[in-house]
Amino acid sequence: MIDLYIPLIIMVAVGGLFGLSNVILAEVLGPRRTKTKTKLSIYECGMEPITSARERFSVKFYMVAMLFILFDIEIVFMYPWAVQFKVLGTTGLIAMGLFMLLLFAGFIYVIKKGALKWD
Amino acid sequence: MSTTVILFTILSIGAIASGISLVTRRNPVSAAMSLIVHFFMLAGLYLTLQAQFVAIIQILVYAGAIMVLVIFVIMLLNLGKEENLTEKFSMRTTLALALGGLFVVQFLTAFLGKKTGMNALPEKSMSIGTTEGIGNVLFTQYLFPFEAISLLLLAAIVGSILLAKRKHEAS
Fold first, then answer.
1. With an 8 Å Cβ cutoff, is A72 touching chain B?
2. What is the rounded distance in angstroms from the CA atom of residue A111 to the CA atom of residue A58?
């Protein structure tokens, strides 16, 4: 049974090695320039180019992320239903319909409230 | 050693290493990255336990969606210099260490007393964790909890909008 996952393990290993090899090869094969602080800085007139990356973000980003998670979980429940669609038949369809109906009401609420509007 | 034992060893060492890295990083973003590695290791462990659906959901929801939220909390809270937040040895750390030590002792007594060893999973439990197995019971035996989840998600949608919109209008 573990043999079933050998392709998966190979895929993860090749994927990881590809990413790692790109970083290492770029370092080895790439041109070596003298790196001074002035040379590495971004060219910009009269402005301090580097400030802290930690700034406060708008709550709108939070709303998108939160709603993404909630609808992501909704989709998760569709996988077992879709896999067993034929076995479950009409009962499954009604059960999923009710599930979707309640979340669709939530979706309508999201749209009507303008939660995803970016003004 | 069977492949399962080898995989379990690799994955659990990875999980423990990334877990330690998670709590020791000074930079919260590096800590969050360690948490992603930890989630992947846990997903691998679920796979060795024949819980394929949970393993995929672990990556899909936890490493995907929950991590977005973790990064968000780091960005929204705007902690500033994290180095200033390190606390000295206090009452709370002492208590946490004592309780953690107690947990380790409890764990060791539970496991060292028994004769351990990897027993092969019973035939019945092999098919429970597959997507088909979950689909079969979720829409028949556990239909009511399933429908209740939609209500819970609906409440979460309304709740998050109410919380965020109120602040949005005030500003």
1. yes
2. 19
